[in-house]
Amino acid sequence: MKEIKNTVDISVVVPLYNEEESLPELCAWIAKVMDENNFSYEVLLIDDGSKDNSWEVVKAISETNVHVKGVKFMRNYGKSAALQVGFKACIGQVVITMDADLQDSPDEIPGLYKMIKEEGFDLVSGWKQKRYDPLSKTIPTKLFNYATTLLSGIKLHDFNCGLKAYNSKVVKRIDVFGEMHRYIPVIAKWQGFTKIGEKVVVHRSRKYGVTKFGLERFVFGFLDLLSISFVSKFKKSPMHFFGSLGTLSFVLGFFMTMYLLGHKQYCLYNHLPFRNVTDNPFFYLSLVALMIGSQLFLAGFIGEMINIDSNKKDDYGIEEQVG
What architecture does CATH give domain 8-234? Predict the structure, then answer.
């Protein structure tokens, strides 16, 4: 069995959780595809705190196949954490991610590899055009994909497809945390990797076990989308967000106050009946607007001061240097 080099053609990163039945078949299938296409490769199996015998299966496979490596978490951290660890450890020029449940076909690997290496894509996402999922899953997925396209500007049919291909520069640049694995194309785009495509892939029905995801993932997914949209736009310039809202609130409160004071002076000058400014409910609304505006300004300043220190440590994506 030949040794793995410092760099290989393809790294296959497979997050897994309680998939002991499918792992031997999956790894054998990947090996078959790689050998048929003469790819040098590695398979990284990231055990996300499985409660079954998945880790024992991973160890057994790695003893007979030098291309298979395994990482085991002490507990279940989630798919994003598994992908992050796999991305940092992999050495492939092209990185393929797929789920461990055999619903993603390794036969798609050569086509995905070609789109990265020959067609120059930074990232290619699989599109399960024909799905073997119930309506309770497919309808929310369509809504989720539509909302993500609107907010990100990336035209993909299936953001959450586990079968994706990446140029190695992408996975070494991005950070995946929380439940952000759903938005890796969005994260990649905001890091400067804009050549993002998709490929129609086969979606196979589940052969072993049960799905690990429930309907709550769509609620969390929407909240994560709002979070990543906010952070990506205003992380480097928090004053743009807080300062804009603060200015609007402060100006509104200021003009409301000026109007109330001016109206009282007008009534006094023309000997018209009036009531005290402090008896007018708009006075208190204007005070609230002034205070909120001031607090938002302070939040923006504090964010900018924190940001100055973080920018000193930032690693910006420099593609090339000369001299």
Answer: Alpha-Beta Complex (3.90)
